[in-house]
Amino acid sequence: MNDLGEGRGRAAAARLLDVAGPDMYLRNPFRVTGLATGATGRQVRERRQLVLSALAAGAAARVGDTRLPVPTPPSADDLRAAFDRLDKTEFRLVDELFWWWGEPGGCGCAEVTHRLHDEAVAAHAEVLDLEGIPGSASALKADKWAVAARAWASALLREEMWAHLEHRVAALADRRLDKSTVDGIRGSIAHALLAPQVALAATSGEPGRVAKALERWEFDRATLDDARNAAAAHSYDQVELLCAELAGWLEDGRVDETVDRIFKELVPAASRLDQLVPHGRFRRSAVARNRVAVVVNNTGLVLMEVPAEAKGARVERLLTEAEGLAVDDDTKTVVRNNQELWRTERSLVAATGSATPWNAVNTLLAEHKYLSAMPLLLKIRDVAKDPLSRRSIQGTLNDIRAIRAAGRGRDRSPVAGNVMAVAFCVASIGVLGVLLGLVFEPGPGSAIVVGVLAPVVLAFVYTDWFMSRPMQITNGGGAACLLAAIGFDFVLAYLADMGSVPHAGVVFVFALFYARPIGRALARRWDDR
Fold first, then answer.
1. Whether the Cβ atoms of residue 404 and residue 411 lie closer than 8 Å to each other
2. Where does the pLDDT of residue 190 fall: very low under 50, low under 70, confident under 90, or very high at 90 and above?
3. Measuring CA to CA, which residue among 142, 141, 44 is closest to residue 84?
4. Can you give the residue range of the structural domain that contains 389?
5. Buried b (16+ CB within 10 A) or exposed e, 252-280
6. Cα angle at 307 between 305 and 311, to 5 degrees?
7. Are residues 11 and 146 in the same domain?
């Protein structure tokens, strides 16, 4: 084929694709005027004069196809445009392809060729008319698309169909048309037949249904994929634009607005895109979907840091949405880790009563309120499932114990603290004194027993439980407990042995020099279990 032929082929293909659309049959000039595709130029002119004259005189003119009339009677302007188009032979050839050929005449075609072609036109025109009717049943449209696709597949198998077009080129006697014109139409017929659905899928309220109907056509996979990508072109742009815009909003601190637009715009846009081009089949769709997941996940993370009572449901929804959108394994892992982090935070909030548990801990530590931080840290450790996080929390607990043991930085916690430790030790001394007084006279034997048991008493004082429970009562409560312990000892001494309780107390005080480190070690071993 020479350059002139290639040019004619490209021009014919362009005209074909220009016609192809949801209204390709609705606007077909043969359907509008009621003329046959084999009408001569003279017949077209006579029909034009008759119809337009009648309209000008205010009389009714019989127009339109009788087999498949247009849903709405054409206006005078519609009729003029249709007749004008039939005068342009290069466009007329395309319009003939998409209307009835009727019984074979001088073309030499077999009857079956024209019949199959006309059945394909009828099925295609009917389903496109149905798509234009609001509220028509989706199942019916799906069936009609299947019928149209099968009908065109049967028609296109007939080589005579292209011979008929070549015959029509000769009959139209236009020097701008030749065999290369037919070749151009033939090379683009698949895209032209899919074009109406491409346009419908791009704007339909049921993009998935329309896109799925594309799969009914018996064209190669590349052609069908091109059609889906064409239908999704606007959705691709919309998703990419929204992702960029919302990421910027998030950086600017417009968190609430970002969340609202994610659910109102971004997620629906991502859903529409996936219906048009499923991410499991289209790489670009998968990349776009994963980007949406990242934006949604990042928004959830930022929202987690916002101190708001009502954020819980939104964070949960964002992370759940991000998990469903994530495509690649790395993104899925990140989202799942963030979900676990969020569940941990929610458990901490429930356990600690603080909306920001870690912030509360850090504030208490900075204010040297170590004892007050202990209960929160223990609850955080109990909730945390990640081994690394648990080790980090345990390290902080150990640091608190070391600071308290070394006496560095007076603990400013507004709790009883060591007063409760003293109260427990005083009560323990009374009990030990009475028990030992029943066995020993105050002397070396009872001193040894008190010396051995003193670290055990102190070990209990240094346990996590004691520091996070009894030591946390108010200063007034601690003072009351200490007075009660002293009174308890006096009562025991009075009722039992006046010498054994003071003796146990003196030994206990001297034992503190070695009982403290031993008690701390025992408490650590107990807590580690």
1. yes
2. very high
3. 44
4. 357-406
5. eeebeebbebbeeebbebbbbbbbbbbbe
6. 85
7. yes
Residues ≥6 apart with Cβ < 8 Å to 347: 383
Q: Compute how many other C-beta atoms are within 10 angstroms of the C-beta atom of residue 518.
A: 15
In the chain, what are the helix, strand and coil shares in percent, each to the nearest 5?
A: 75, 0, 25
- Report if residue 327 sits inside a domain: yes
Residues 319 and 387 in one domain: no
pLDDT in tens, 352-405: 566 566 777 888 888 888 888 888 888 777 766 667 777 888 888 888 888 887
3-state class of 477 per DSSP?
helix
Whether residue 115 sits in one domain with residue 7: yes
Residues 391 and 316 in one domain: no
Residue 425 lies in a domain: yes
Tokens of 460: 């209990």
Q: Do 500 and 376 share a domain, yes or no? A: no
130, 257: one domain: no
Kindly report the CA angle at 341 between 338 and 345, in degrees rounded to 5?
140
Are 164 and 91 within one domain? yes
Cα dist from 146 to 99, 203, 217, 218, 322, whole Å: 20, 21, 8, 10, 36
d(CA 25, CA 32): 9
Total-model pTM: 0.69
